[in-house]
Amino acid sequence: MGGCRVKHKDRLAFVTRGLTKSYGEGRSTVHALRGVDLDIPEGEIVVMLGASGSGKSTLLNILGGLDRPTSGTARFRDIDMGCLSDEGLTKFRRMHVGFVFQFYNLMPSLTALENVELVTEIAENPMPAQRALELVGLTHRLDHFPSQLSGGEQQRVAIARAIAKQPDVLFCDEPTGALDSATGRAVLEVLDQVNAELNATVLMVTHAANIAGMAHRVIRLVDGQIGRVEVNKTRLPPAEIEW
Amino acid sequence: MVSPLDRKMLRDLWRIKTQAIAIILVIATGVMLQVMMSGLVASLTETRRTYYERNALAEVIAPAVRVPETVLGRLAAIPGVARVSGRVVGSALIDVPSDPVPIQAQAVGLPESGVQDQNIVFLTAGRLPAKNHRDEALLLSGFAAAHGYKIGDRIDVVMNGAQRRIRIVGLAQSPEYLFVAAAGEMVPDPARYGVIWMRHSSLASVYDMTGAFNQALFTLTHGASEQAVIDAADRVLKPWGGTGAYGRSDLVSDRFVSEEIGGLRTMSRAVPPLFIAVAAFLLYIVVSRIVQAEREEIGLLKAFGYTNKEVGVHYTKLLLIIAVAGAALGCLLGVLAGRAMIPIYTTFYNFPFLVFRPDPASFAIGALASVVSASAGSVFVLRRIFALTPSEAMRPPAPADYSKTVSLKGAVGRLLDQPTRIVLRSLARSPWRALGLSAGIAGGMALASGMTTIYGAFDRMMNLSFTVIDRSDATVYFYSPLGEKAAYELARIPGVIAVEPFREVAATLKLGRKEHRGSVSGMILDPQMVRAIDDQLAPIHLPDQGLVLSQALADILGAAPGDMLTVDVREGRQPVLEVPVTQVASSLIGAPAYMQMQALNRAMSEPNRISGAHLRVDAARAEAIYQRLKDMPTVAGVSVAENARASLQKLMDQGAGSARYIMGAVAFIITFGVVYNAARIAQNERARDLATLRVMGFSKSETLFVLLGELGLITLVALPVGSLAGYGLSFAIARGFSSELYQIPASFDPFSHGFSAAFILCAAAISGLLVARDVNRMDLVSVLKSRD
Ligand SMILES: Nc1ncnc2c1ncn2[C@@H]1O[C@H](COP(=O)(O)OP(=O)(O)O)[C@@H](O)[C@H]1O
Ligand SMILES: [Mg+2]
Q1: Residue A1: its pLDDT value, please?
Q2: Worst-scoring range by mean pLDDT, A148-157, B396-405, B538-547?
Q3: Is residue B348 situated within a structural domain?
Q4: Among B201, B224, B244, residue at a domain's last position
Q5: Which of B49, B301, B515, B775 would you label with B58, given CA atoms 20 to 30 Å apart?
Q6: Complete DSSP assignment for B290-310
Q7: Given ligand 1 and candidates A58, A60, A222, which is best to mutate, with the most ligand atoms within 8 Å of its CB?
Q8: Which of B586, B613, B648 represents a domain boundary (last residue)?
């Protein structure tokens, strides 16, 4: 990563300029992103809203180092992500990033605790796996396999797994998409808490507009472009979010 | 602490346990075969070496007519000779009352001093003949066992034309007579050839050898040249009727042992690797499927920041555990099976002892083959997965795109119900997936049909040998070549239907640096009983000049029609002939060379001589005929076709050929493993689809039909392909089983292919039932919720 450093004076986690991403070729090309310029400050909860297919996941994947843009630049702190090799991206994810997915994506053959340990194993400065599960309120289900957990519990294991490494950035793609309102709120509370206690930047994709109330910043994506960016003067605690 | 990744691996292993066990067994049987076969080869080679050494088997044998004992000093002075002794050896006929045919035998002198320093006999019972008891003798254990002789029994023996009654005082084995075969017989048979040992003085008086010997035995000093000693001995013995000294490897017994061990060795090199290759291929297919099914998890691991290397190591470990377990089990089974074979081989080879010593190289080969194929499989598959970006690998399983598959519209389409369409579409959607499974089953089919073809080929070899090539009922051998009228005498015996004289001349055939110690068969023009045939089974018309070589001999010498052979004759005036090869005949037993009898006799300058005759006899009077032959002083032996056939069968069933039964069993085990795995793979990969079908309201049987229909089609495609491959494979296996003793002809054998196909269909049905049980018990919710 050393060779990809760039000088800067801001306190921004991510900066993108002219980011595009297209899939396929010829007539069937899909332009998922059409030039995204975006600044995301450190330590904020940023909610990304947009219709289905507007490119939210694509953007999230690129920022998370899971995918590469077709053109444009993306910077994380002082690292030029476009300059990173595959190994560099792997290292970036390993050191800085946590992911939470809509479908949990737990390893079915590992218990809740082991799923978290899977990450603490390779992280540089992890918290104990037990503690991560404590944060999401799952101390009593440590030895259960995913198939023995409810959807909300699985999602909380996924969050514990993501925060256990004490990441600088937490990416959440529709974390509450498959959950009912009570469990959804509980999950949001955990995310809020992680942001406050670990000072992690949280980037959350959702299509539920009311979740935007708990964000510092709300970004709307329309057809692969940034539509509007709002900064919330006052944030709602997750418990008060209407579902 | 065990890392979570390792724990995941162990649980994954547990999840695929039945499949893992099937693969482990497949690999294990392949490795077992390798370890057992090469272990047997190593053990037999080592046992033979030890036995020869312990019992001081002579390294050079020099026969002569009659050599005064005073010459021994000159023989001992030959450079390179460590020890020399002279003994009397004579041919004899044993009259076994229960047997109508006189049995050929050899009488061998034991040193008068009682101290054996070369060719030491191994007493299995009794004692050595005592001084002053001229009728005491040892009898070869194998012969005694075959005829039920015990110590104390008396037998009638004709030696040098005179009948004598001897008393058995001991039973013996000897490294010199591990295998015995009567003159002219291709196949050794302990019942058809006897060996008796008597004191030198007793035999000397019988064979007129008092103060003389007719065979010198040499042990060489370390590093001495065998050929130099042979040449020197020939020079010394020339005035005494030396007929040519020869090395240990030209000893009849040793040649059989070498052929047998050589046969086993060829086989152990040719056949087990084929089995391991199929097992490796299966491992590769299963491995690629397991890794493919883990696509999502791999993406996830990569998303967390696990490197390609870490992920690769994780999956490679899983495969290595399977491969190593298979190899280890195979080594263990191989040693056990080898041990179990020891008694059979000890009896068959007439070794007094045999230690099973596994060949360390075979462990390494077996382990390496499975480990390499496992890692190669994983590397190949993982490389494709690594090429994916994590986000791609993570995308929820894309709904399969059926838009580009076969069009099922129109008249044909309307005939198909929904489940059938699903079967056809899923096959058409991922033909490679289906083809991979098909190829695995085809590999099993190839092994099974290849091996069963070999069973048939052994029978075919027997039938061709005794109904097409040699159609005689019996063959008579004279002590020495006689005039042609001897044949008329045979013809006059009542019940003899036809007589076909032949001339057989011992000779060494040479081409360039290659040579073969054997004989040349002189045959009458257009013989009716024993014939040279071409590969269309048509009799070959022997040329006025020149030799027709059997394929086996042509292979040994590297000869082709047009080549000029040097024929170094070992009897009579011992001429050295230059004879062209005119044609190559297909032969199945031995490595004969054919020539017109007239031409052979002319070359020998011995006109109108015959060595014996093939007979066709009236079965009802056969007993009487053999009795008459037994009483004829000119007859050295009679070989009855029926007996020869039985001893060949025995050789094939107990010697190197017996390996075919084990290999056949292994082939079928592997085949079953392959089919079962194919069924499991299909089931695993379709679990989600099957559950979805059930959720949508399809019945259990309709759902099963989708799975089993696919499996059935995959199997049906595999059968013809495997059959074709098996046809090719049978030639390779047949070559492995062929030796100088007999050659196995591979050919298309419909029965073998039908049988193997039936076996695979049964295996598929059984696997289908096993899988069906699981599909019927499937918990829909859990299948849909989790990946598997
Ligand atoms: N691997 C892919 N191949 C082709 N098209 C894709 C791929 N991934 C995403 N897309 C397309 O890109 C667009 C944006 O997708 P995505 O970022 O997943 O949207 P969102 O998450 O906002 O619903 C969609 O039209 C989608 O079909
Ligand atoms: Mg999305």
Answers
A1: 63
A2: B396-405
A3: no
A4: B201
A5: B515
A6: HHHHTHHHHHHHHHHT--HHH
A7: A58
A8: B648
Q: Does ipTM surpass 0.85 in this model?
A: no
Task: Give me the domain span that covers residue B688.
Answer: 423-468+649-788
| Contact at CB, B8 and A114, closer than 8 angstroms | yes
Reply yes or no on whether the pLDDT at A105 is more than 80. Answer: no
B578-607 burial code (b ≥16 CB/10 A, e <16): ebebbbbbbbbbbbbbbbbbbbbbebbebe
Tell me whether residues A66 and B297 touch, CB distance under 8 A.
no
pTM of the model: 0.71
DSSP symbols for chain A: -GGGB----S-EEEEEEEEEEEES-GGG-EEEEEEEEEEEETT-EEEEEE-TTSSHHHHHHHHTTSS--SEEEEEETTEEGGG--HHHHHHHHHHHEEEE-TT----TTS-HHHHHHHHHTT-SSPPPHHHHHHHTT-GGGTT--GGGS-HHHHHHHHHHHHHTT--SEEEEESTTTTS-HHHHHHHHHHHHHHHHHH--EEEEE-S-GGGGGG-SEEEEEETTEEEEEEE-SSPPPGGG---
- Residue B403: which pLDDT band, with cuts at 50, 70 and 90? very low
- Whether A168 and chain B come into contact, CB under 8 Å, resolves to no
Task: Calculate what percentage of chain B has a pLDDT beyond 70.
Answer: 91
Q: Are residues B120 and B157 in the same domain?
A: yes
Contact B7 A97 (CB under 8 A): no
Verify whether ligand 1 is closer than 6 Å to residue A55 (CB atom): yes
My answer on whether B601 and B498 are in the same domain is: yes
Task: State how many domains chain B has.
Answer: 3
Pairing of β B193-199 and β B103-110: parallel
Whether B601 and B475 map to the same domain: the answer is yes
In this structure, are B439 and B507 located in the same domain?
Answer: no
- A87 and B8 within 8 Å at the Cβ level: the answer is no
Name the average pLDDT for chain B. 84
Instruction: Report pLDDT for B786.
Output: 42
Q: Judge whether residue B285 has pLDDT over 80.
A: no
DSSP characters over B65-130: EEEEGGGHHHHHTSTTEEEEEEE-EEEEEEE-TT-SS-EEEEEEEEPTTS---SS--EEEEE-PPP
Q: Indicate if ligand 1 lies below 6 Å from the C-beta of A225.
A: no
Are both B623 and B755 inside the same structural domain?
no
> What integer pLDDT is reported at residue B407 of this predicted model?
52
Residue B35 is assigned to a structural domain of this protein: no
B66 lies in a domain?
no
SS3 state at B564: strand
Is B630's pLDDT higher than 80?
no
Please tell me whether residues B449 and B504 are part of one structural domain.
no
Which amino acid makes up residue B273? P
**pLDDT of B644-683, one tens digit each?**
888 888 877 877 777 788 888 888 888 888 888 888 888 8
What separation in Å is there between the alpha carbon of A59 and the centre of ligand 1? Answer: 10
Would you call B384 an interface residue with chain A, using a CB distance cutoff of 8 Å? no
Write out pLDDT tens, residues B299-342: 888 888 888 888 888 888 888 888 889 889 999 999 998 888 88
Domains and CATH numbers, chain A: 42-69+85-240 (3.40.50.300)
Q: What percentage of chain B exceeds 90 in pLDDT?
A: 31
> Is the CB of A195 inside 8 Å of chain B's CB atoms?
no
Q: How far is the CA of A58 from the centre of ligand 1 (A)?
A: 6
Residue B361 lies in a domain: no
Task: Kindly state whether residues B578 and B514 are assigned to the same domain.
Answer: yes
Q: Tell me the per-residue pLDDT of B540-549, one tens digit each, with 9 for 90 and over.
A: 999 888 999 9
Q: What is the pLDDT of residues B189-233, one digit of tens each?
A: 888 889 999 999 999 999 999 999 999 999 999 999 999 999 999
Residue B362: per-residue pLDDT: 81
* Cβ-contact B423, B713 below 8 angstroms: yes
For residues B637 and B653, state if they share a domain.
no
